[in-house]
Amino acid sequence: MFFTLVGQEIAHRLRQLSTHVYFLIFFGVSFLLMNALGGAFTDANVIIFGMGPNTHANSPFAINVTILFLSLLGLILTAPFMGQSVYRDYESGIYPLIFTTPISKAQYLGSRFLGAFIVHLYLYAGLVGGLMLGEVVPWVDASQFGPFMLSAYLQPFLLYVLPNLLWVGGLFVALPALTRKMLPNYIGGVVLFMGYNIAAALMGGDALRNSTIASVVDPFGLIPTQNLTRYWTVAQQNTELVPLEGMILVNRLLWLAIGLLSLAALYAGFRFAYQSGSASRSGEDTELEPRSLA
Q1: Could you say which of 107, 120, 151, 228 has the lowest number of CB atoms within 10 Å?
Q2: Number of domains composing the chain
Q3: Pairing mode, if any, of strands 274-275 and 287-288?
Q4: Which range of residues forms the domain containing residue 115?
Q5: Half-sphere exposure of residue 264: CA atoms within 13 angstroms, side-chain side
Q6: Is residue 294 part of a domain?
Q7: pTM of the model
Q8: First to last CA, the chain
Q9: Residue 63 dihedral angles phi and psi, to the nearest 5°
């Protein structure tokens, strides 16, 4: 039953045109950025995100910071995308039927979250696809590129995209599930994105940015990564993956745990029951509980 529901959620999302538009946006932005790094648009070297002038456009360092920053921008879409997994049942008015069918609360919430989570990973896969294709097109300057490394594309997914999407996605599924409204998601998405950028600007001083506290509490892992790689040589940027150790390891474990706790809080606070109209009008709390599979 659970995996059937997950499949239905994935199929529903893949039928939506907006899903594939988002994928193409991620793909196109990353493709153009790799072209720019590879000298397709100018004779001058394009240097971004702390890259050295001789850092390869497809180096592990360049790919890591590109996926990290673009995935942070993509979190703007996470609030409405993840929130719709539950809210559409309220919006369409079908939730009384769903809440009285023989499925459990765990099956309902779990399938909605996991299905949306998997499709959201499909969107972020556009980042990887765009960067990979931008690396091999014939109009870029081959001297700007080093050898292809598949691990350089996969590691940022495991290090940043998965844990960040887990806790942010859990938050934005929980808000409409508990409030039965999408407005908190739209507000929360803007506050999260703007608040993080303001906090990062306020922490611009070296003393704060280099502090252990800043490295641990940064919810997206940017500060510990910058601290670790700030003094890397060009040779390190071209060959080494960002290691999962020290403050990066602590940071990722902390926010992975917060993501799991947010899902647990959603499960504990969500009432998988429908209050009948007659009971509501009479002021009573009578509810129709889901029918047992037995």
Answers
A1: 151
A2: 1
A3: antiparallel
A4: 2-288
A5: 6
A6: no
A7: 0.82
A8: 14
A9: -65, -40
